[in-house]
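Lay summary

Proteins are chains of building blocks that fold into shapes. Our project writes down both the chain and a compact code for its shape. Here are two examples, one after the other.
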Amino acid sequence: MQVCEAPNLQNSVVCHLLKQQTILLKSGTPLTLNNHIYISCDGSDSSEDVENSHYIPLTGESDDADEIRIVCPNKTCSQLSTSSYGSARKQEIIKMTEQLIEAINTGDYEGYTKICDPHLTAFEPEALGNLVEGMDFHKFYFDNGKNCKALNTTILNPHVHLMGDEAACIAYVRLTQYMDKQGQAHTHQSEETRVWHKRDNKWQNVHFHRSSVTPSFAMK
């Protein structure tokens, strides 16, 4: 589904996707029906599409039309609004997860504690199958785990579940490239799930579960 702006109908119509991509629809002649201009989101400009579709009011000026509308065959306006809001929130969770991992990579324990709940719970390989609670267990690795010269982390296939307005869960694969003290390059892979809770308008990580398929080097 695309939300379009038409600053110059004679030349082109720029359409912005909800997935934050951008495409350009070549103009031609926009469909005019009942003294309105209709722009199709999917590239089709037929009367049938217009008559069977939902429309979104569009800001713009035209000498030949009272109003500009977008043809949206698949979703109603309310569905589009909800989808856009959900997409933005999912991106926010991904960004918070990236910030947390960056704090880990740089050894920024203070930054890590600001993102995590003080009573954070976790299952991770270092805990040998036990559920750990609080920050002390993790602080040990911040204080003693600086054995790598360089780190680069990639989050693969992040999938976010939104659970109301104040909770979310993200699952992803985490690839970490690092150089050891001997200058040898290594890659570590882990599968992670993190639960986020929004308190006082701030997201905090309240639980995570990490599994590893390669030898661990004290990741959090």
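And here is the second example, written the same way.
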Amino acid sequence: MRYHRIIDSIKIISKNYSTRSEQHYAKQIRDATVVCTNHLTPEIKLHLITEQCKLWHSPANECQFNDPFWAFYWPGGQAISRFILDNSKYVNNKTILDIGSGSAACSLASALAGANQVTANDIDPVACVAAKLNAQLNNINIDVLSKNILFNDCSQWEVIIVGDMFYSQDMADVLWKWLDTLCNQGRTILIGDPGRHCFKPKRHLQERLKKLKEYKLTENCCLENRGFSTASVWISFNLGADSYLIFLHCKIQLLLVFHQKIYHLGLQQL
């Protein structure tokens, strides 16, 4: 009986993963993770590394993966996924691109919320296999793309999801520039972040970000992400070129009025 279960498992892996390396990654992921629902979106099952896993307690040099970031459900991704599931209007009947998708939880949430088409994008080949495994686990169809598409034409997608991507200053600098361009092109951008130091909206995009929701993280997520207890979802909104110039003009006028008031108060105190 056990032999037949192993053979069936091999058949499933071979059917869903086209290359031998993908089949190998799929087996490694299954062996190293557990199916987990202990997070902000329990309706989505994910292959994750938790305290139940041997790898959790092993030193880094014993890890068979270069960087198993895809095996953790990061705070920003949890917040976006929860928000999408509770507010489907942001993705319903739309085309979605999930950048740096990792486990693809945000992609799965988008599909569950009624998106027309969802693409999970990650340049890590193991993450792409993990995304396929998680989609299969939840009986959800998504597209998985391993190509680096930063600064590519993304006109085929209406909503861009960016979860937990502001992990370094170099990456943040690249992302802000790209996201600003996408925003100018009319794309809607959903960002999830727990308040990392590098999450500092700059220049034009700063004026077009609005915090939609802040979530308290689960206890296990707080332990995995020391120093963070909440995560927030932000949305960008596009202003036409003329409207944006008017917006900036109004803001400058308000700042001038404010500074004039401060100046006059200072004179009165002399």
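What can we say about the second shape? Confidence is low (pLDDT under 50) at residues 1-15, 240-244.
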